Task: structure prediction
Amino acid sequence: MLLSACIEWIFKNEHDDVCDRVRAARKAGLGAVEFHQWRNKPLDDLERVLGETGLHLTSFIVEPRCLLVDLNAQAATLAAVGESVAVAKRLNVPAVVLASGPILPNVPRSAHHHAMVQNLRAAAPLAEDAGVTVILEPLNTRVDHPGLYLDSTVEGLDIIEEVDRPGVKLLYDMYHSTAMGESPEEVLGDRIHLVGHVQVADSPGRREPGSGNIDWPQYMRILKAKGYAGAIGLEYRPTGDSLESIRLTYKSLGLRDGADPRWP
Result:
């Protein structure tokens, strides 16, 4: 199982420089990293340090943020996806992340849904031509993102099915899903093939697995039983020392030190 550390938060307390966070992830035995924004990152330095360490960069967010729920914003969405996909191709990143955007006033939910399908369908060729996947992320509206439109894994998967393009998949974030009261067994159903990436953080608190109430071995068993074989993104804020949080994460996910060849 390949674990991918979100260096937006992990190793941030120990290292101001994002490239040093990549090096720290390598020393911790991880095989991949990911982050949020790319426009504020030193891309030349990142390209060099990724080559030096041999780490993969799993994903980053499309910038500027897009209004997928608004058909009138399609030109801006395509421009943002195009720029972000070009950077992803340069850094050999397999996926870029999109969220829905906020609920529009006086617009029915059906129109939001329709706009997302159309905008993603229009963006798909930009990603596919570059060998990149756009991954749509539902976010929780109960704790972190009030006012956002897409907070349902089931509706997110419905949208992916309607778009029906190989370059568009779902980012299933177990923290956001749990915050919305969802069960992974139920909401994923038989549609794990539509999931392009999985992220984890414990609940409550959005800290490392093992710090909250989620039954992580059970969640991992569900993913394995459904056939998920991709990376697991560690998108959490460490409670304390980043390396210790990663060790706790390994144990909480039901993994042993040394079970992964990247783990020292």
